[in-house]
Amino acid sequence: MLSKIKIGNFKSIEELELQLAPLTIFVGPNSSGKSNVLESIAILAQTTRLESSIVRSLEGSLRYGAFIRYPLSSDFPLFDFIAHKKDWSKFITFEIHTKEAEYHDIGYMYAFMPKEKEIRQAVFTNGEKLIEVGFLKVGKSSWGPKFLYPEEFKPLRPAGDLRDILVPVYFEYVIGREKPSEIEEKQIEEISSKAQKIIEKIETGARDFYFISAIRGEIGPSVEIGPIKPDFVGAHGEGLIEILSLIFAKREYDEIGEKIIKWAGNFGMRKIKAGWRGEKILSADYIDPELQTLLNIALASQGSRQILTIITQLFWSKPGSVIMIEEPEISLHVEAQLKLPKMFSDAIKEGKQVIVTTHSEHLILALKPLIVNGELKPEDVAIWHFKKTERGTKAEKLNLTDKGIVEGWIPSYVEAEREIIKEWFNTLPEA
Predict the structure, then answer these.
(1) Nearest CA to 326 among 299, 360, 301?
(2) Share of the chain residues as helix, strand and coil, in percent rounded to the nearest 5
């Protein structure tokens, strides 16, 4: 579970640091930078999913990643779309922190400077930098690995070329020009060993990050069984039917299946099921509660199809997973939007973390009964309000009371509601 993220020079973000909770909600106007935060986490996480070490880098991640991908074209100005204000001379930085029993707080930073194609990586414990390495330009067309911190490491040479990320072996070292003293060597080995253990923990956890895009819900009547089984529903829901078929085919997933059936029923899809339909075909269907008719999932409403993608990933993910969702309320009626926090609460009780962007005030208002009833504690929820200034995205943490009320309400909502009330009063007849 992530406790903190720091982002620098990425899209609309010049510099941003956010504390996270089991349920973290980003609110604010369109284009204020909410989705950019989710994308930054997703980009860092998806690099661990790339099989080839040749492409396991920021550029490779953006070309071939599972969550966020940009067109593969030699003339496509990739970093014009990624670097803050198109500045290629500054490091694009992603930093994540998590609470961990052995070290209390551990963190990892990956930074890439497009102009010189330089890379920096760092490991943190309890808010302090433990070790930093770089893959830096040393000539017109050559780069080399170098330890940047601490001082004792600088005479040494890192093992590996440091272009991969989250790979523990790169925090090993070989003796460089100067051989350290026995005391220094012992210190160096302790720091290196600690850094490798931290990276192993972060790398393992990053494989359980999932990103669900706002572009989702286009589900066909069936899919053909492929050679590779997906491990998540896909950023756009493209693996939904395959995941559902797997869940309903194995008894070991009965509990997960029951959760999905329950929540799909709450959103108007009763007795949902999926599986083999002959030859190499998989499909899913449900019972329409009003018509009492069995229907293929492709015939469900757009809102039903998109929320089924979210339901399935929430309960298919294992404890410790981080599920990031853009606007879960898309195409949902107000009554359905009010059910979202309760569903997120169920996932959180299973040890998962949910991070969402939203424009729904109903989702925020529906937190109140959960907090009053003790299903969620105020500290289980973090609400951040985003806005964009001349310097880029800024975020303010909103206080949630022990009654589940946002103090002062949401600034951008207040402004919009004030205008609506003003116009409404202007239409009233004079007394």
Answers:
(1) 360
(2) 35, 30, 35
